[in-house]
């Protein structure tokens, strides 16, 4: 059983480091711990949840509807969150205050990690060393040295699944947008715009323990958090990287703390520009003073992305538990070809005349899933139903909806990968690329300069490691 007294977070980190070092030493002497084999009845993955605050409890509610896993244990250092998680899970798991006790259980195949960012790496490391499959919420790691350490550790344990919580990768809308790009339906995709605007955004909360005020508000302090870039932008940077099919070359940005003067030290507004190969760019904005979103005819607020190509545009946003995802496609016709008639004198150009010739806007067409496309192989009734849906979509009477929440899809895939050894869509490479973007974006804003992504290879390495790399 767990100790009755809560573990202090700083002690939590220290003991995490100690147990990691001890486990690594034991692995060298005795061989690595055996990877947990999925052996429960009905081939269910038996898992534990580490971190049962707001996000952890949210995941548990979704996990209740997924048959592929069974929750045996939950862990949190704050007892009210721990007790709430036990009540939330349909499996009525055992509760722990010390995550090491959870990892020591040999009947647990996998762990899901939803702790504050600064604890992601130590707990992920210890879980891998304990032979567990790991699902970790974004951003996967916090510091440059953790990028290198986790890459090395995970690469040495290829039979263990490591998945990061970037749920847009599991949305049918975003998957369809990627397919449209690959088919050339948007032409040459050159720019992505993304925003996550809130009003007021994060507020400073009063901690039950006044001595731990900073840790209770961990998102607001740099010693624990990557700020807006890690907590919000990371999702949308990943979207751009996915859609472009490449990682950024450099980033520039401006961030400042202008409004939320409550003792925090993270920025309350950020503006970033990422340059990708071929001059393609992601333009990103996150603010805390206004939540307007000038997409989707004003039907949604806060967050969304615009994918712009030479022949079309997609406006897209992920759904929530209460709101559906949206994907709209705007066709961009080329300029009309006009042939000059013989003997006709060309009219002089009038300054400002282009303002009158920009062309009319259009209503976006909904992104269609494969199930909505008419292939000619359907039965008469199935084909007529598709035509009817298309008619309703075009007139805005009905919109396509995902049959499953992407959060459910990502969790279900995690369990499937644990059983089969398959590689998840949001794997180690995706997670580390996203974390690297967060780390370097914050550096660009702090130092007021262009930061190249190649710089990560020299950051966070000891002199010995640099020598080995060279």
Helix-strand layout with pairing:
Elements: H1 9-30, E1 45-50, H2 54-63, E2 69-75, H3 79-88, E3 94-96, H4 99-103, E4 110-113, H5 120-129, E5 133-137, H6 144-155, E6 162-165, H7 172-182, E7 189-197, H8 213-216, H9 227-244, E8 250-256, E9 269-275, E10 281-287, E11 303-309, E12 312-317, E13 326-331, E14 365-366, H10 380-394, H11 406-420, H12 428-447, E15 451-452, H13 463-469
Parallel strand pairs: 1-2, 1-4, 2-3, 4-5, 5-6, 7-10
Antiparallel strand pairs: 7-11, 8-9, 8-15, 9-10, 11-12, 12-13, 13-14
Helix pairs in contact: 1-5, 2-3, 5-6, 6-12, 9-12
CATH superfamily of the largest domain: Dihydrodipicolinate Reductase, domain 2
CATH class of the largest domain: Alpha Beta
- Side-by-side strand order of the widest sheet: 14-13-12-11-7-10-9-8-15
User: Which term fits the overall shape?
Assistant: globular
Helicity, in percent? 25-40%
Q: What is the second-level CATH architecture of the largest domain?
A: 2-Layer Sandwich
What's the story with the biggest beta sheet?
9 strands, mixed
Rg, alpha carbons: 25 Å
Q: How would you classify the helix and strand content by structural class?
A: alpha/beta
Chain-averaged pLDDT: 86
Distance between the termini: 48 Å
Count of DSSP-assigned helices: 13
**CATH fold naming of the largest domain:** Dihydrodipicolinate Reductase, domain 2
The percent range for strand residues is 15-25%
Poorly predicted segments:
1-32, 348-357
**Count of separate structural domains:** 2
Question: How many E-type strands?
Answer: 15
Order of helices and strands: HEHEHEHEHEHEHEHHEEEEEEEHHHEH
